[in-house]
Amino acid sequence: MIIRTPEDLQQPKMLEEDVEVLSSPKIIWVNDSAIARDFPKPWAETASVEESESRELRRRFIVENAKIISTPLANENVVTEGVKTTGEKRRAMRPPRYGRALVTRAYPLGLDLLHRDISTSSIGLLDIKGVGIAQGLIPKIADYRTGTLQLDIAIAELINQMIIEEIMRRLNLDVCGVPVYAILDLGFYARNHDRKNLTRCAALVRSGHRRPANGLDLPFFGSDDQLVQIMIELILRLHGISSTRSDSLTFMIGRNKNGLCYASYAGKPVRGMLPKHAEKLLTNLGITLAAGEHMSFQACNVQIAHGCVHSPLSARMVDFFQYKPIKDYDRPLLSLVKDRALNWGGVIWPDDELRMRTHMQRDCLNMKILQNRSLKDDLCDWIGVEPGMQVHGSEYLGYELARGIESDNISPEELASILDDIIDSAFIETSSGISKSQLTPFNLDLLPTLSSALPL
Q1: Closest to 123 in 3D by CA, of 40, 51, 29
Q2: Closest CA relative to residue 105, chosen from 26, 23, 14
Q3: Residue 37 and residue 204: Cα distance in Å, rounded?
Q4: Cα three-residue angle 201-93-176, rounded to 5 degrees
Q5: Which among 167, 191, 214 is the end of a domain?
Q6: pLDDT digit string (tens) for 18-27?
Q7: In whole numbers, what is the pLDDT of the chain averaged over residues?
Q8: 109 with 182: CB under 8 angstroms?
Q9: I need a labelling partner for 82 at 20 to 30 A (CA). Which of 231, 313, 328, 375 fits?
Q10: Using an 8 Å Cβ cutoff, are 329 and 237 in contact?
């Protein structure tokens, strides 16, 4: 379902804010077919348009409506450099927990944008990631505080999305990402805490979509959202990919050298959890640990739009940078929920996952494309990081392609062709000779279920 109006977002705590209009953003990648499908004629009815002009008009429609930037990034700050705006003001919407993204109404080309009737002339919504933090906040050179999106990360995120969508397509499952219409080069640079050099800034222009109400980032226990998240994670793990990328989503329980139990989340002690509580947690989980030993749980980080269904499986995924290759399956997989103690929604134990892998093995991904690589010295110099830095495959490709784009060596059409080739090379023929385009049966009933007993 296409989200056309702010009311369709169903976000009662969504705020509107003034934004600036950028002077010279440009498209570096575009999904013409998605734009044509969702906006068949994005120009004023009075305009006379030849069919041959349609593609360029649709692209201009995306740029004209998405070329916004939040006021804190447009104003002088320590993060951005070279921001150029037209002086025009527009209104955009920020749903809860939209740290660096905004939603804007999309208007047909050919209208007087300064005198439009916002209640009647809008033909849809665009969700734009990478266009700044909210009014009243100050951009900072720190993780998740700049309000910007690096061009290389935008490309890496798109690559991850395309690979995951191809996996689901081959399995004939109704799971895909929220459509990305374009990646825009916003025309300015930003400073980042993890690299010395300025970074070209980009925006992911996505379809308007409905997130869980009020920005709820964890599902409720037993809900379709929880079950779908785990199902998607398990399907991807069969193909060597996992959302459990961040150490900030690791739960650990152990004993110190004196034998006292402790529990930590994201490297910090769990608030209010005494040794006796951690001891009870160990007992309830059936875990035996000696002094100095610990066990860590990887938390699922699959992000989905509102409205998913677990049977039959149907979901629209959002945000893809966290996905990475996975080699070891020796840590339990934890489902986090909103309404249980410790946010504990249940566990998939390694033995259960091993049985799943034994019966449902899927070795169709070329891990040479996805595996970790050391950045070449010239690429490290261009980024501004230490020589030999290791990144996973889509990040590496993101850096290489961003450098080519910044050097004006790659056009939107060339980038689209390169990405198509990357996706083709990410999949290999199976030993059974299944063709790349052939859909293969997949029995979701064989996926292991969560151990749902509460830990406390």
Answers
A1: 40
A2: 14
A3: 18
A4: 70
A5: 214
A6: 999 999 999 9
A7: 88
A8: no
A9: 375
A10: yes
Distance CA 182, CA 184 (A): 6
Question: Domain range for residue 248?
Answer: 224-365+439-446
Q: What is the pLDDT of residues 140-160, one digit of tens each?
A: 998 888 999 999 999 999 999
Find tokens 């033995």 and name the residue.
351
Look at the block and give the residue holding tokens 């459990």: 244
Type of residue at 318: V
The answer to whether the beta carbons of residues 109 and 57 sit under 8 Å apart is yes
Inter-residue contact 229 to 301 (CB < 8 Å): no
Instruction: Tell whether 232 and 360 lie within a shared domain.
Output: yes
3-state SS, residue 82: coil
CA 154 to the chain's CA centroid:
9
Structure tokens at 355: 């049985």
Task: Count up the domains in the chain and report the number.
Answer: 2
Residues 26 and 134 in one domain: yes
pLDDT in tens, 69-84: 999 999 999 999 999 9
188-202, pLDDT tens digit by residue? 999 998 899 999 999
CB 159 within 8 A of CB 207: no
Q: Mean pLDDT, to the nearest integer, of 131-143?
A: 91
Are 185 and 151 a contacting pair, CB within 8 Å? yes
pTM of the model: 0.92
Q: CA-CA distance, 329 to 3, in Å (whole number)? A: 38
